[in-house]
Specification:
alpha/beta; FAD/NAD(P)-binding domain; D-Amino Acid Oxidase, Chain A, domain 2; 2 domains; 9 helices; MTOX; oxidoreductase; EC 1.5.3.1
């Protein structure tokens, strides 16, 4: 210890989208930053890889809309600085039974936030999407202009490049085994499994599906963050209809509320294929994943048959990929100080529950604010405190059912 190569203002543990965005934020503000990743940079073992993620500002929880709006602005600013695009805008469509509680809460949230939207019945959906999409007569849809698709691996690479350009040090294959306070000089010391030691004035933990394991090994405390493996399916568009669903036109990103909760994107990453998947999966150990979760696609096939008017081949997915969520009991994030002996010197960002990627620029801003100043403007952090689980093991109380399904 004592070398300028091992001492930093801020150490960020975890080089996925949240850690990379945070490192960019701290480095941009002039703080000497170290980003540590346990695997190769841009690896495919966590939650930040792959071909697409959606952006939507429509949420049943009214505290996410402003975060998405700020994130959208920050995505564009980062793209401008990088000189290339990772985010393609589209409209967005939420749909479901007219009496579905989560969809009604979504509409109430839009109204509370003065977020522009249109409610469509089944005829209006058929007219707007001209024979490409259909909903039952007792369903409604919520149409908004703010949707879009993000290229995730490219986005992680962008934030890492921007952080490096601002002076951050990036080190991969650095598995963190322990974090301790430096009782002699203050700050914290981070220890890796290779025997490296790094001193930091403060630290941010964004370890994704490994957050629970790391926090437990460091403090003995069990954070209620449960890894879940999910299957992402791509379906073949029947010949002659490919352009109808291609990104760049008017076809939206979409979500279907109720059971099961489904989501999808226009055709982008694989020509002639469209992504439609169930928002759910199977609990897993991130170090012992099956890598191809045994999901049942019967309900998904039935939904596709009913919505896409026979224009997709739903006999079997054309391609299936594996990814992970980091679930909290209430599906809300953890953005807080670790506390205990670490006080405000270690900040946790985790539990993004399958819907955090779109907000990663603002989450990086919030985590940087917390670690540098002890507070964060523009967000109600009470929804994201660790202590909410002490008050109620289920976390934040909601008037609608969980969105993510468990096999």
């Amino acid at each position: 210890m004592g070398s300028s190569a091992t001492e930093f203002d801020i150490i960020v543990i975890g080089g996925g989208i949240m850690g990379s965005s945070t490192a960019y934020q701290t480095a941009k503000r002039g703080h000497k930053t170290l980003l540590l990743e346990q695997f190769d940079l841009l690896h495919h073992r966590g939650s930040s890889h792959g071909e697409s993620r959606t952006i939507r500002a429509t949420y049943p929880e009214d505290y996410y809309t402003d975060m998405v709006l700020e994130a959208t602005k920050l995505w564009r600013e980062a793209e401008s600085e990088a000189g290339y695009r990772v985010y393609t805008s589209t409209p967005h469509l939420d749909m479901g039974p007219a009496n579905e509680a989560s969809l009604r809460s979504l509409i109430a949230s839009c109204r509370k936030n003065s977020f522009s939207f249109q409610i469509l019945d089944h005829r209006e959906v058929a007219n707007r999407f001209s024979g490409r999409l259909s909903i039952p007569e007792d369903w409604i849809a919520v149409y908004t202009e703010l949707g879009g698709v993000i290229k995730p691996t490219k986005a992680v690479s962008m934030f890492q490049a921007l952080a490096f350009r601002r002076g951050a040090v990036l080190k991969d294959n650095m598995e963190v085994k322990d974090i301790k306070r430096d009782e002699a000089r203050g700050g914290i010391v981070v220890y890796t499994s290779r025997g490296d030691e790094f001193w930091g004035r403060k630290c941010v933990v964004t370890a994704g599906a490994w957050t629970k394991k790391l926090v437990h090994s460091v403090t003995g405390h069990e954070l209620p963050i449960q890894p879940l493996e999910t299957a992402v399916h791509y379906w073949r568009i029947k010949e002659g209809h490919e352009e109808k669903y291609a990104i760049g036109g008017d076809f939206p990103t979409f979500a279907s509320y109720g059971q099961p909760y489904l989501y999808g994107t226009p055709s982008l990453e694989f020509p002639g294929l469209i992504k439609i998947a169930v928002h759910g999966g199977s609990l897993c150990d991130p170090d012992k994943r099956p890598w191809m979760p045994g999901t049942h696609t019967d309900s998904l096939k039935e939904w596709i048959e009913g919505r896409f008017l026979g224009l997709l081949d739903c006999s079997t997915p054309a391609s299936t990929q594996s990814c992970m969520y980091s679930m909290t009991p209430d599906e809300d994030f953890v953005l807080d100080f670790l506390g205990g002996e670490f006080g405000e010197d270690v900040v946790i960002g985790g539990g993004f529950s399958g819907h955090g990627f779109k907000m990663s620029p603002v989450i990086g801003r919030i985590l940087a604010d917390l670690v540098l100043t002890g507070s964060a403007d523009g967000v109600e952090l009470k929804h994201f405190r660790i202590g909410r689980f002490d008050e109620n093991p289920k976390g934040n109380i909601k008037e609608f059912a969980d969105q993510v399904g468990f096999n």
